[in-house]
Amino acid sequence: MKKFYFITALLLILNSLALARIAAALVGYRLSHTLPSTVNRTHSTMKPAQSEALSAYAPIVEKGLFGRAAQGKLTLLTATAPVAKGNSPPSAQGDLVLVGTVRGSFRETFALIRRTTPPEERVFRLGDQVFDRGPLVSVQKESVEILSGGKRVKLLTPQATPSDSPASPSPQGPAVTGGATQTGSGTFVVDQRLLNAALDNIGQAMTDARLLPSVKDGKVEGFRVSEVKPSGVFAMVGIKNGDVLHKINDLPVDSPERAIQSLASLKGQNRIKLDLVRDGQPTTFSYDIR
């Protein structure tokens, strides 16, 4: 009987040992799959502390604890990004890329422009504000011009060859001298063909005079006209140096974009109305386009 109990106890002990080995194997298998990532994370998080701790050894090196040959200053090396030679800060328009253009009537003339930072690609019409740079004033086959900070900035498509870079003179419209014929007090008649021809290139038309904002009480109330070209569209409708243009066809001219849009909208019109200030006096001019 005692022998039977002894054998039973021995079997229970052996079973317990077998179960313990199986449990240990399972725990080891689980740890082998979780421990490396944990160690890596711990190692990566300890790097900054490790670099900071290195400064604590500076006195050992500076005092020459290991002899004069090892005496000096402890300098921590930090990785620096390589600086490409010849790279200069990008220009004001350096992050704009002209993808392509479509030319047609005023409402059918577009430019597809991409901004790299932050990345965005949009379609702009003539007169639209190009992101935060300025209005789009000219669209050609392989280039566009943006009025930014009072200066024209030219963008070329990637397909444009370097020989296209120098801006060739824009084709001048027909000479317009005395295009408006006065028929009464403040009323005029303008040749429709001459007006439309002058407005065919809105970018060129915007160079026929210089427009500077006229500000009153902190707000733009119009644009003061100067440097009027005798053969330009402004001279055609009788605008003179010193005039302050307030409205075109009852639309306020209170921004560069509105000025471009209003000027371009004159093409194809039968009547034009200009509200301006001349010699300090408000004046209204009306034009019949024939």
UniProtKB/TrEMBL annotation:
GO biological process, one term: protein transport
Keyword Protein transport attached: yes
Region (Disordered): 156-183
Ranges where the PDZ domain occurs: 209-280
Low complexity biased stretches: 157-167
Subcellular location: Cell inner membrane
Keyword Kinase: no
UniProt keywords, alphabetically: Cell inner membrane, Cell membrane, Membrane, Protein transport, Transmembrane, Transmembrane helix, Transport
GO cellular component terms, semicolon-separated: plasma membrane
Protein name, per record: General secretion pathway protein GspC
